[in-house]
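Cast an eye over this sequence plus tokens and walk me through the fold:

***
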Amino acid sequence: MSIKDLGNGKYYVRVYNPYGGPEFRKTVKGDRAARKAEADAIMKFERGSVTDPGAGKVLFRDYALRVIDSRDLAPSTRLHYLRDCKRLLFPVWGDRAMRSLLHTDAEALTTAVRKSAAGAGASNALILARSIMRSAMLDGIIERNPFAGLRLGQRKPAPKAPPEWADIRSAVEQATRSDYQDATNLIIAVLAGTGVRAGEIGGIDAVADVDYLRGSLTVRRQLRWMSEKEALEAGLGSGGYFFSPPKTEAGEDRVVPLAGWVVDAIARLAGMRGEPVALPWKSPEGALTAPVDTLLPLYQPSALSTRVADASRRVGARFSPHDLRHRYATELEQRGVPLRTVQCVIGHAPVGVTMSVYVHVTPESLVLARQVVADAWADAASPTAGQALAQ
């Protein structure tokens, strides 16, 4: 540590880093400012919060791509991140040095992004930018996240009410009585009766994952699809269908209890496909492993949503695969299934130490969840309704 008088009221402050990193060097005016700079540098070294001035010269574009490459992301998530960067973030910040980005720059970026995109698209891009700057702060490139104190989220609209069981059952039965014989009705039944995500239903192996006697489903993976163009944009080997783990770690290898009518729907789906559809287990990088059976026809996620929406409109309703997941979770909660059990069967991570460590899912609560779905389906029956799953 040293303070050197340069004359004309200027002082050169130099503080060695005791931990082997870059040392602190700065020229200031006045003896008092020099002693303060020295003390601040020592404190930053002790706290590990000192930044590397050289690293701060890296451009936001280069650092953002480095951060995205370092993260273990699903292919579709990686694609969304890259698109948000190229379309919304890079035009404003791409050529800026990381250390030059201030709070006012974050405000300007927020304004520009919200003019270019609306709703969740803008919020997601800004949250990504804030996450990138947080990584830069932890890497010692910047001292403070310029997004600190900024509200990035949009005001959320009132939550949409989940579809009624009567509409769900009518959609299942109406599709069976019509010429709409593409298994959409049975897919609706499985989605509503299990609460699984649209991608997860595509990853069900009708033999290995379903216990027909005990009435349970084990969710192990989800089916994903990317076009060749999207795969190329995301820097992957090839497009097409591939399996990946469920969306969250809490959703992997979870056991979902099945009511009798859901078991029937799954059995009918398995019987309708004829020969098992063997889908290669392909990693996003293009490597192939052993083929695995999939329960459903190979629908792209958007196509599945369209089919479900079409079936619902036939009975005067409008719902998506995710709306059916909401209906399932809402039904369990409203009929007294413990929250920890609801979180477990739909694949949500519990919040807090108490819920994650001390509160366990009991066999009795899983039986209750199965009975709730069975009762909801029975209550939705109309005297003249066709018995879709009994045919």
